[in-house]
Structure of MmgE/PrpD family protein:
Amino acid sequence: MTATTLNANDKPKNEKTLTGAFADCLLDIRYDTLPAAAIEVARHVALDGLGVMIAGASEPLGLGRISIEYTREMGGNPQASVATAGFKTSMSNAAYVNGTLAHALDWDNTWYPLNHPTSPTLPAILAVAEHRKLPGHRIIEAIVAAFETQGRLRLAAGAAMKNGEGFHKPGMTGTFGAVAGVARLIGLDRQQTLMALGLAGSRAGSVALNTGTMTKSSHSGHAARIGVDCGLLAEKGWTATADIFGPKGFFDTFLHGGGTPALLVEGFAAPLRMVDPGVGFKKYPSNYFTHRPIDAALALRKAPGFRGSDIDRIDIDFPAFDYVDRPQPRTGLDGKFSVQYATVVALLDGEITIDSFTNERRFADDVQALLPRVTLRKDTSIPGDFDQTWAVVTVRLKDGRTCVQKMQELSGWIGYPLTREQRLEKFFGATRRALDQTRAQRVVDLVEKLDAIDDIDEVMTIVRA
């Protein structure tokens, strides 16, 4: 049976379907027609993704170590590099472990509507590109396709895929993004693309309840692995439904008929969503909803004479969003999803780093003493929409003084981008435990001209070592 053979429930080729229209839009994404802004953002995405992937290998609770050990034990033909591990494995295994590492610290980028577009997709694209020695401009094209796919699917899902509830988005929209990226990377035709998307529909899934555990990061890893598998199987002639976004498909099955499916194609790439509204690059390795309170806390720390030991109690005015209301996080990893904990550590330390979310920091005496004195006040008058929300941190000091900081702007978010210097500071900080300055700078030099290089072998050799 070939990829052009229809299943009984498939539509004839000449019958228009939503999935067919979506595939047509996807196939229209070509490097030679991409706007310069999209190419530039794709380079930023690649560098940031590599940085957080490398950093994830040394996640304090051992998530990276376990993932690498598991992958080594699984074996596999040496086709693609595992970040920091010193070995290659199969494309599928490399996509899995690198995807998991890329989300391990919750430092990977995000955008609007909320989703993690890089960790489920870039590792799949890199694994296939490394093995097949594909040129950098094809990687750029694949990144853009993967991002646009996720953006359109998040728009179409709308309120049916609420933040922090039900399905965790990297395992859902991220899976389709990975499949789309691989499909464009290896040049699947229309019918093969339909088959790859149909297969993805039977493999998508993740549960947001696992937030705060190692399993959450594996959602990105599985999405990346599925992206490789679906693309390669479709290339070889695997069949699936040709209308995964049609009746009884993705929207009916996962979202109970919710969402607005037409938004999959309405306005597709006009403009590309990675250009407008753009991509948010995280400054801190924690859930993005904690970043406004962190920024507010760090601003308060700059007040003359302010010391963490002088704090009596803390009030945080915040939107009515339960996802990050964790007054006593179970671990340092769980602390990434706790507004209370992230604010306390920012006030005590004057910084937020990877080490802010170790178990040692979480259960240190000063944190243990201050956490019970934090009150999270959920204010229904504060917009719940991430793009419009704000937070207010009020610190009452032991000498009776009160310090207040409202934070609506969000560093790294759309409209408040990180500068090149800030992005490079993040990359060098993320990679410092694995790469010396010379090798890290070489990765920067190569990725900043990604579309001009013949293949990514040198990049991945450095990342692997």
